[in-house]
Amino acid sequence: MMKRSFLASVMAGFVLCSLVLAGCSGNSEADKKSNRPASLQVCGQFLGAENVRKAVDAVGGGDANATARNSPDRLAAALTLEAEKWSVDDLIYHPYTACRIDIPAESDGAYVIEAQAKWSALTVDSMREPKYAKSWRQVNDQVFVEQEPGQPIVTLLVACGIPGAASEQEAELPLQMTLMDPGLEVEQRQSLLSTFARTLVDELACTGDPVVPARLLR
Q1: Helical residues (DSSP H) of 91-162, grouped into ranges
Q2: Where are the alpha helices (DSSP H) in the chain?
Q3: Which pLDDT band holds residue 12 (cuts at 50, 70, 90)?
Q4: Among positive and negative, which fits the CA dihedral 113, 60, 189, 199?
Q5: Residues near 101 by Cβ (< 8 Å), separated by ≥ 6?
Q6: pTM here?
Q7: Shortest CA distance to 70 belongs to which of 37, 46, 91, 34?
Q8: Contact between residue 211 and residue 141 where contact means Cβ atoms under 8 Å apart
Q9: Reduced to 3 states, what is the DSSP secondary structure of residue 146?
């Protein structure tokens, strides 16, 4: 019995490790180099392969180093599990880095494109409050966008109900996605963000069929 319990604990730890996007994999230079093509391909699954290619080319087209430890379906599985366990008293939600691309800059450092997702502490109703309505733009009944002034960071909220979650979850726990880039043109930025959002909405099979339009930014 002790052996069986020990094995179960080990397997549970392995599964949890595989779902945590920011750890539990090799960090050596050899690991990074061997994972570059695969990770860049996964970034393309999240953000659109052509969008990624154009974004990399726009900042010099160097030897991009991508990090993407979970495919869209595995990230959706992790988010679904959180939503199913959610209660109205929960206030803190785990952020997941879906994709990070580092493109060498001419000087020291790198240009960074990063896409993150998590369940939001904000609510759909809060978007109508004056303090949020000032910075959040309503795209449609289910989608809201915030562009940080002077910063290449855009955040999107979408009402996404998960089958099996609490009835309040769709309105009280919207999906939040953030895109950070090195200063891309608006068209490229919104193409990356809208593709990212539609990818996760499709993978999560959100109830209510939220529509994320291609045009999100003014």
Answers
A1: 130-133
A2: 2-19, 29-47, 49-58, 72-85, 130-133, 169-172, 186-204
A3: very low
A4: negative
A5: 40, 43, 52, 55, 56, 64, 65, 66, 67, 112, 113, 114
A6: 0.82
A7: 46
A8: no
A9: strand
